[in-house]
Amino acid sequence: MSALPDLRGKVAVVTGGASGIGMGIARQLIAEGMQVVIGDIEAGLLRKAADDLGAVGILTDVSDLDSVRALARSATERFGTVHVVCNNAGVGPLAAIADLTMADWHWIIGVNLYGVIHGVQTFLPVLQANEDGGHIVNTASMAGLVAPPRLGAYSVTKFGVVALTEVLAAELAQTGSKVGVSVLCPGVVRTNIGTSSRNRPAHLAGGGLKDVDIAREDNPLYRWISPQEAGGAAVRAIKRGDLYARRLPAGYRGSPAYVRTARRILIPNGLHACFRERHPYSVR
Ligand SMILES: NC(=O)c1ccc[n+]([C@@H]2O[C@H](COP(=O)([O-])OP(=O)(O)OC[C@H]3O[C@@H](n4cnc5c(N)ncnc54)[C@H](O)[C@@H]3O)[C@@H](O)[C@H]2O)c1
After folding, report:
1. Which atom of ligand 1 approaches the CA of 143 most closely?
2. pTM over 0.85
3. Is the CB of 188 under 6 A from ligand 1?
4. What domains can you pick out in the chain, each with its CATH number?
5. Residues 278, 242, 17, 185, Cα dihedral to 10°
6. Ligand 1 centroid to residue 267 C-alpha, Å
7. Closest residue to atom 34 of ligand 1, CA basis
8. What is the pLDDT of residues 189-237, one digit of tens each?
């Protein structure tokens, strides 16, 4: 796959860049010498993050195609083009499938899956028009590789992001494109995802999805990483042209089942092994 080994002076757009993993990715891209535009739905947080990072902040709702197109227009008008797009914005509340309403499905699919689709469809032509190519990073999750109870709606969106990325990677490689694509599949990262419902729109209110602060769960299977570490994994994948932005903790000695599964599913060959052996997280 195509890689972008030198990011200096290039331009990146990161959705959900006002918090958590998106902010971690933006910080790492800026450290590489990139100009970064962050798109986010939360105006106050966006202003503060843009100031802290030295990035440009553009109010964006990734579930709305017109809003993502406006983000692309703002970035290209300001910097001429875009080389790296990180489709990262997402929400993560949980519920059993039996407790979900259609409003729940529309909200979570709108942000987590359509958000990524909108980013790919909008920015891919921009990246392909660059002489030196570009790279897309889609944030999925380990829940895009394993499907545990209560993460049904979330896993549906994240499996979709993994599938979209795998197919796009194969198609770009087949056509000899200078654009590469990676998928980021973190386990647990210390972010504000436990309060995702703060960004739930009023017209999709009233559902079973509930915010869960997994940081309160004393689960030995969880191996926490920081947003910066997740951002570092994304940058490495862009520079090396890896399909999977792997972030297996060095020296991690967690559950053998988890490690075995993670090793198999995070190899860059794709998901084949995952279908043979699928160990759900223990979600309490
Ligand atoms: N935190 C984890 O443990 C974890 C693990 C795996 C994957 N992820 C994924 O990482 C991504 C980032 O989540 P995070 O953990 O950093 O959470 P976070 O809540 O800290 O950050 C998410 C950001 O997305 C923004 N956002 C929400 N809805 C939006 C919309 N419609 N349009 C634009 N921006 C919107 C929020 O305002 C926020 O700034 C998500 O896709 C999430 O599913 C998180």
Report:
1. 6
2. yes
3. yes
4. 11-278 (3.40.50.720)
5. 10
6. 24
7. 40
8. 999 999 999 999 999 998 999 999 887 776 766 778 899 999 999 999 9
